[in-house]
Amino acid sequence: MTEEAPTDGRELLVAGADAYSRGDTAGALRIFEDAARTITGDVRLGAIVNAASMADELGDHARSLSLYREALAAMPADAPRLRPTALVNMSQALQHLGELDEAQAALEQARALLADTTDQGVLRVSCLLSLTAVALHRQRWADAAELATESLDAAWRFAPHLAGHPLMNLAATYFETGRRDLAVDFAQQALAAFEAAGDRNAVAETQQNLATMLVRVERFDEAEAPLRASQRYFEQAGLGFRAGIGLKTLAFLAEGREDLGQAQQLYRRSLAYFVESGAVLDAADLRMRLSTVAFKTGRFAECEALLAEAFGAYAERGLGLHCAQLDFWHATLLEGAVAASDAPAPELLAQAVDLAVPAALAIDAVRYTLPNGNQRDQWNRQIADPAMRLAFRFAYLSGNGLLLADLIETQCAGTTVNIDRSDGGRAVRLPLELLDPPVDTAGQAGTTALQLGAALAEVAASAGLPVSPPPRLALAAEGRIALDPYIAAAEQRYGRVIRDSRVLTV
């Protein structure tokens, strides 16, 4: 009988990786946990990191974070490969738990460790992708577009099989800033890239993300096939977090078809997944959706409670723009109640004004942070303008002539464009010259997903005129600042600067 050659446990890591590649994430977790219990040294640390990654994907984010911290605490300082890997992966769990500051810090530490390396290109791409995800969570669209473009370039050089991820991040960025057709195109290119790479998990995630976009632009029939295909995959693989996202989107689809009973059932199943996994931001978004169903079915107190809970989750994590968008959402619901009443109660109109006006000012201010004229125009037309219109409507319905006059004055003041940043911020007021949209390259034969994505990214991220936040308007005849109490309320409620410190007398 021959004696078996000793092993250091690496075969367990290979077996775990094989299980994951087959879609057996739960099986991979068991293998990695077994490896962590039975082996020592660097291989054990690698097993713990892999187990943490599997736990995160299965939706057990708290367990995942605990494992990452265990690995980092036991890791020697001279672990140049494993430490940045653990930091980048840990940032994913932190993002799911809503701990964005910690996620950012972990990623910046990893990026510094990777700065002088030439042999960890895949990890550099992953780090940039995670930094993009944090920017997306914080709705810092200019940062997200810049990081997504940088990560696409890095993928082109170091890891072409990962190209779908920055393409999908670009899709998310441009969808949320109003460039919906370009966003869908990026998502389709991402899907093609993942299919070419044979990445089953990423294909399913991208199908789900693409379906979500199509549902949000009310292309319901196009959305159903990729949505149901991805849902089958996630449920069979036991990926609870992603299954929760799919249920939320299926519920949104049911709501769009006015099947409110089915929508509520699906939303509640989705919320249970998110609560169980500790995905607080996803749970907050889900409560916003549930609030709409509650409102439509006459459960107004439940609607208010759900919105308050979601607002608290966003505010606690410094996500001011999320809070503003929630208030706009809330005000939109109240608009339905006002429209249904022949004589809306004064307190209802007052509540609507207090929600709609600060929210509109905060949402409108976002366009001044976007890097080019086309993006600012898209944000204004598709996102900020509806919010401002609602603010005007409620100002009119409430009979608040002073507020109405201030809204008109500030909207007519125009945009302030910085012509020269080198002379102390000298600025002049003149109309924006918008960039032309990118040409349609979808029909070009032989264009690969990565090449097309890089070309579109270059156009989409092109620089425009630098724009400052609007100044405060001093009304000389009245001796006051227009909208001053609403500006103060917005900046206090959302924790964001929405007006420049400069004062313009009119």
From TrEMBL:
It comes from the Bacteria. Keywords: Coiled coil. Residues 93-120 form a coiled coil. InterPro entries: TPR-like_helical_dom_sf (IPR011990), TPR_5 (IPR041656), TPR_rpt (IPR019734). The keyword Protein transport does not apply. Residues 49-144 form the Tetratrico peptide repeat group domain. SUPFAM superfamilies: TPR-like. SMART domains: TPR. This is Tetratricopeptide repeat protein. It comes from Nocardia suismassiliense.
